Amino acid sequence: MIVRWPLKARKTGLRARRSGQRVVGLGLVLGLCAALSSPPVSAFEAFTIRDIRVEGAQRIDPGTVFGYLPARVGDRIDAEAASAAVKALFATGLFRDVSLAVEGDVLVVKIAERPAIGDVEVTGNKEFDRDTLKRSLRDLGLAESRIFDRSLLDRAEQELKRLYLSRGKYAVKVTSTITPLERNRVGVVLAIEEGESARIGSIRFVGNRAFSESDLHKEISLGTPNWLSWYTKADRYSRSKLDADLESLRSFYLDRGYLEFAIRSTEVSISPDKEAIDIVISVDEGQLFRVGELGFSGDLMGREAEFRSMLALRKDQIYSGRTLNDSVGRITDRLGSLGFAFASVNAVPTIDRETNRVSFTIVIQPGRRAYVRRIEISGNARTRDEVIRREIRQYEDAWYDADKIRLSRERIGRLGFFTDVQVQTQPVPESPDQVDLRFSVSERPTGALTLGVGVSSSEKLIITGSIDQQNFLGTGKALSLNVNSSRLFRTAIVRFVDPYYTEDGISRTLEASTRRNDARVLNLGDYVLRTDALGIRFGIPSSELDRISLGVSGEVNSIELGAQAPNRYRLLVDEYGDRIDAFLGNVGWSRDSRDSALTPNRGRLQRASLEFTLPVAELRYWRATYADQYYLPISRDYTLAFSGDVGYGGSVGGRMFPVFKNFYAGGIGSVRGFYTSSLGPQEIDVLPQGGTRIVPLGGQVRIAGSAEFIFPFPGTGSDRTIRSFLFSDVGNVFTDDSIQLSELRASAGIGVNWFTPIGPMKLSLGTPIRSKPGDRSQTFQFQFGTSF
To answer: What is the model's pTM?
Structure first.
């Protein structure tokens, strides 16, 4: 009896032959017979297997077949067992056809292998690079040497479409081609037609009364195309972006008193050509609520007055969800600093809709006091563990302290080696009074190749460069080579900093430098000054934020005067000679409380230093400087920044103050809108060929200040990688006996700080708003860097 089964069914059944072989029926054959209400197949007779032979194997070893086959030599096999054997082989996914036959007492397993994938090619891709797409396909199982499965190919096509849909390309088409290759292999080609990206045509709001559509548009990241869409991608729809925007809308309304705000629906429609998307957001604002009574309950530990002082909400003011959350967060942090790692602080509302008042009861449950069992660090593929651990102020086997943990996170962030630092507190199973801390860091490139360029309306390009490795070999030590190749200055500085020269945190800095100032190339004076120096400096931490530095250095100054050299330089050479040696001491102090070294939003950085000559050399002078930067947050996205810079120098023993130690002002690092180092005392030289030139000499006193209003770049939302700023600078340099604040110069302008994928860039446009005849302006400046 021979039964022909449909293709899919035959894959789980047996095929039978009459030529000298016993007819073998499968469970599927029996099932078919039962379905046809015919008697069961009785042609198969059970027998004991004397041998097993595999036919049709090409790439797969017969031993693999024997391993999956549930029947063994010596087993007695019947129709039910044969059916189970075929099903087991098909379950491996290695075969496209399986049949069993019997020759005497030998069980013959005939297989037809599924082809293997020879190679996978992706064509037509522009939005994603090929490696990204192949990696996604490999994760699905579609890769070279894997077994080919048509259903797997279908899933791969859908996965590619999903990736493109996430980028707003709704017209994408994916076509697959299968090409047979030798040795039972196939080649797979996935051809992609990306089509045009679907742009957001409109976003409309329905139900809003308290705020206009323009107000609500400012609170979401999605938007219609504008001139900056190529960078922000804000006009590309994705469900995750929309969900995030809906949460932003909720926060916006809750922070303004609309306690019962709700989003009723969102409708997303796409045009027939799949190139435009329209979004309609329906909202129910509810009523405006004010704050009623504020009370406490739970275990207050006798600190109710302290907890109440942490509440920023006040009775009768408009309710703000952010203010309430901040208050609850402060109380939670305070409990954490007392060792209660899992304290629960909840604000339970009581709503009175007749008066539109909401009262809150702050329920405090401190839980058990905990101590830290273990501190783990992850994410530091390059940076050594000890570099991070020495910044952690929370110790193992000590009481949990949220303040120390927060300080530890800030100190790790100030290293400048990481883009993000996160801390997780995890309970220890079966130990309610123990926790583990896990610091997770995201490393960033700490080597920098920097290029600086300045452009003036009257001068040519000035180019500077530096190579810095702030985390040398992951040790936390810094090695840098700074080279200034401008036409005016040529400088090379090699610096090595060991921030933990001792275990107590004393740092050591070694520095060797050579500087050459050729004033002739920019017509600033007929002289060349060269300074070679070698020094060492130690930094001593006096608190978590303060550091004192002590150092000594030696330098050799060589002056080459031309026929038209400035008079001050002639007087200097007359007194000291054309080679002036100096042995210097240096004392400094710094305090850094900024929340970020790269993009600070709050905090302060102060630096003071005193440089003085030691009596072992002829040159005698002193110089003192003080710089202060203060960041005042207006909101999460807006910041006021103020800075001041004061310097004063004097001679010792009646000797002449060295003019090459003068302070200078003007330029991108000082008073923007004026040419670099051009402000202050000047000397007018008469040139041999006729005409005159103005030579800036600097001064023994410098006064400078700056104010900046930092705000998001238009169209980028809260993206802190690109920020705009308005600035106003003021400053000048003076001789020690002619300080006149009326001589201060001032400028104003606008600029952009942009952390591009290849490095930071700073651009500013400034113009003088207080100047005098003869001042040299510099309108456009930018600095650019790349990382490695």
So the answer is: 0.57
